Amino acid sequence: MKHPLLVKNSWLFLTALMIAGCISAPGRVPVIEKSPQAREAAKPLAEAKPVAKQEGDWRPESYTVQKGDTLYSIALEHGLDYKDLAQWNNMDNPATISAGQQLRLTPPPDAAVTAPLQVTPGVEGQPVAGDIIEAKPLPPPGFVKSEPKAVKLPYSDQTLAQLQKPETARTMTGPPEEVKPEVKAAAPASSIVDGIDWGWPAKGKIVSGYSESANLKGVDIAGKLGQPVYAGAAGRVIYSGGNLRGYGKLIIIKHNDVYFSAYAHNSEILVKEGQTVVKGQKIAEMGNTDADQVKLHFEIRRLGKPVDPAKYLPGPASDKTS
């Protein structure tokens, strides 16, 4: 029979040996089961991919500011919204640019991507908030409508015959007025090019045409002071003001990611930046701001480069309103 003290010491020795083995065993680590969300979060972040360019897009990734440039002129020449350009370059004030400064012409990788402007060709929309609409007067307080009233008549053959007569014969005491047929205005002339429904922005004689060699970037349409100027196609106003030298009071409309149109020398501007307009909507009144005569200078730009409006517009301007 073993001595009790020897048995107790043997048990203590075995226990210590087992504890030492757990501590010194190589390569053993606790196993922790991760949730699917934790495994997904542990994956490395994918690098941002550059935004695909339109076919034929000539625009560089950046631009060096030249003497005389403004943020507005740089945006127009590159087919961009000046507000986007300011945001991409962390500029609070569009006027704070200087010669030699590098400006990025594309959104940074972490910039929010907005859906492109969609314009359905051949569809005329309704004026949006900010347009003038005809308001009908409300009835005065306390007004109670009293006519017409329902009248109960006893049944008879005479009463039945009277009720079966035409409405005009029962209610009118004199001869009926002549009903004129409804006349609908003719749809404005249009020309759909590259998915955009184009129309003339004003009536008048063309006094200057587009010429790439002579650096004439659009067409000049002569007219009268205050004459209506219309949107050449549906889109969104991205510029409304007078900060571009040589253009006077100017409106720029973005039709999609490729096409802009510009309307210069206006006497009055009737739309605001950010406003959506439809083809043929009155957006300004013709004038001679920063010009030698009353006229509308109209440009169509593709990816910032001026193109010949005659290739997009339907027929002569003298007999078209939109």
Task: Please give a handful of descriptors for the protein shown.
alpha+beta, two-stranded antiparallel ribbon, globular
Q: If you had to describe this structure to a student in words, what would you say it looks like?
A:
The protein is of the alpha+beta class and 322 residues long. Helices cover 16% and strands 20% of the residues. It contains 6 helices and 14 strands. Strands 5, 6, 7, 8, 9, 10, 11, 12, 13 and 14 form a 10-stranded antiparallel sheet that branches. Strands 1-2 form a two-stranded antiparallel ribbon. A two-stranded antiparallel ribbon has the order 3-4. The radius of gyration is 37 Å and the shape is globular.
Please give a quick description of this structure.
The protein is an alpha+beta fold. The chain has helices at 4-24, 36-41, 71-77, 82-88, 157-163, 167-171, and strands spanning 62-64, 102-104, 191-193, 196-198, 205-208, 219-222, 228-230, 235-241, 249-254, 259-269, 276-277, 282-286, 295-302, 305-307.
Q: What percentage of residues falls in helices of 4 or more residues?
A: 10-25%
User: Poorly predicted ranges (pLDDT <50, ≥5 residues)?
Assistant: 23-51, 119-139, 167-176, 178-187
**How many individual β-strands?**
14
Structural class: alpha+beta
The run of helices and strands is HHEHHEHHEEEEEEEEEEEE
Q: What number is the mean pLDDT?
A: 74
> How is the main sheet built?
10 strands, antiparallel
CA-CA gap between termini: 119 Å
CA-based gyration radius: 37 Å
Task: Estimate the strand proportion.
Answer: 15-25%
Secondary structure tally, helices: 6
Task: Give the CA-based shape.
Answer: globular
